[in-house]
Amino acid sequence: MIDVLVVGGGNAALCAALMAREAGARVLVLESSPREWRGGNSQHTRNLRCMHEAPQDVLIDAYPEEEYWQDLLKVTGGITNERLARIAIRASSSCRDWMRSHGVHFQPPLSGALHVARTNAFFMGGGKALVNAYYRSAESLGVQVRYDVPVADIELQDGRFIAAHIAERVVDGQRLPAERIEARSCVLAAGGFESNREWLREAWGQNERGEWPSDNFLIRGTRFNTGVLLRRMIELGADAIGDPTQAHMVAIDARAPLYDGGICTRIDCVSLGVVVNREGRRFYDEGEDFWPKRYAIWGRLVAQQPGQIGFSIIDRKSVGSFMPPVFPGTKANSLGELARQLELPEAEFVKTVEDYNRACRVGTFDHTALDDCHTEGLSPAKTHWARPIDTPPFYGYPLRPGVTFTYLGLKTNEHAVVHFTGKPSPNLFVAGEMMAGNVLGKGYTAGIGMAIGTAFGRIAGTQAAMAAGYRTHAVTAGHDHANV
To answer: Residue limits of the FAD-dependent oxidoreductase 2 FAD-binding domain (predicted)?
Structure first.
């Protein structure tokens, strides 16, 4: 019999599998996707947000625990479990050597890559390289991995995991029979439900304009996160946490593909100009804070606009100051021409930009600092980096909400245990996006998802090995201590 069954194939799942295997357990990983799409949303990541008290290899200066916590507190609006959040924060300071031992390499951030040289460690080769390194390490250690095996049901007995059920399916034209896989313990790390269009519709409903907002959402990540297992666990009585409409939702290029657009579809010039809706009107402060701390609110902001679309507008002065997106912007030599090309109401759009230009109070522009360039007498205000948009050519980028992962998940504790009406399961654990809502009630800050997945993936794998009868080292609260 398998000792530890890991359901999922992304960062958190692989961290769990590696930790359980290092403890001596026989481990099987079930990945719902084909091999070429393995890794879930982790294949699209770039970095890990890391606490550090002093400069560390690829990280400059210091990013102490309290500052990290305050950053998280600000983006979540206080909707977070401080105990679990601090576990992830502390673990982020010490996990990189373990990651390196499994083949992950880090590099300094590229010039102009967000403003995170102090806070985030970038993966050499990005998330795909990280995922591949973990799979290579897992397989070399004897972890079994199976692809194209979506788990449809979990068999429980009084909160104890008994077996996973795989439905009959067709793979490469071949019909495969249903299966039942028993294990002594199990880690659930199968992601959220962002690729389930029906569930998104159910969660978001209709707005006052009669629109179904989620119909216009694009999915930045994997198409395989349909939430089947998450919904089944909730049906089976597992304690849930989180708002189903809350998600890591970014404003991305409206021309991006429906699935797997990844990082390159993000539009990073929002704070350098203005954003208007399809009526040609601004609707939020583009300069509220540094882009890495605010980029993840813009998907939701665009989702609240008519038609769930917006347009990021800049002029020539801003070119070269942001990471260029994969698609070029619409270019025009006048504001009126740009409005016509973007099919915006010309008079309203031109008035919006001219009103903004008149309101700009330009001091010392510095996009690497919270500068003194702001607007006066304008609503909404732009509180930093406000410069007139008056130097042709002008550029416009269409924006849609891009969902990375949803925050509805399973409630857990410092041991990554699944609970049923408050009672912890003796052998069922959860990690990654399936429990990230414990820490992320709303909002996001760059690299925090990987910190949560790495911390709780390692905890879940360790605890699952212990539940299967293996003596190991528990990983909790960011520190290792022996369990005997």
So the answer is: 3-441
**Burial of residue 160, with CB atoms counted within 10 A of its CB: 0-12 exposed, 13-18 middle, 19 or more buried:** middle
Topology given in CATH for the domain delimited by 2-192+227-243+407-482:
FAD/NAD(P)-binding domain (3.50.50)
DSSP-derived 3-state class of residue 104? coil
**What mean pLDDT, rounded, does the chain reach?**
94
**pLDDT tens-digit map of 381-428:** 999 999 999 999 999 999 999 999 999 999 999 999 999 999 999 999
Comparison of pLDDT for 324 and 334, the residue scoring more: 334
Q: Which of residues 241 and 483 earns the better pLDDT score?
A: 241
Q: Are 233 and 161 in contact (CB under 8 A)?
A: no
- Cα–Cα distance measured from residue 416 to residue 461, given in angstroms and rounded to the nearest whole number: 9
Rounded Cα–Cα distance for residues 103 and 131 (Å): 10
Distance CA 170, CA 316 (A): 52
State residue 338 phi and psi, 5-degree precision. Answer: -65, -45
Distances (CA, A) of 389 to 130, 362, 380, 392: 41, 12, 16, 8
Cα–Cα distance, 162 to 428 (Å, whole number): 9
* Range 250-402: architecture per CATH: Alpha-Beta Complex (3.90)
390 and 362 Cβ atoms separated by less than 8 Å: no
- Which band of pLDDT confidence, cut at 50, 70 and 90, is reported for residue 473? low
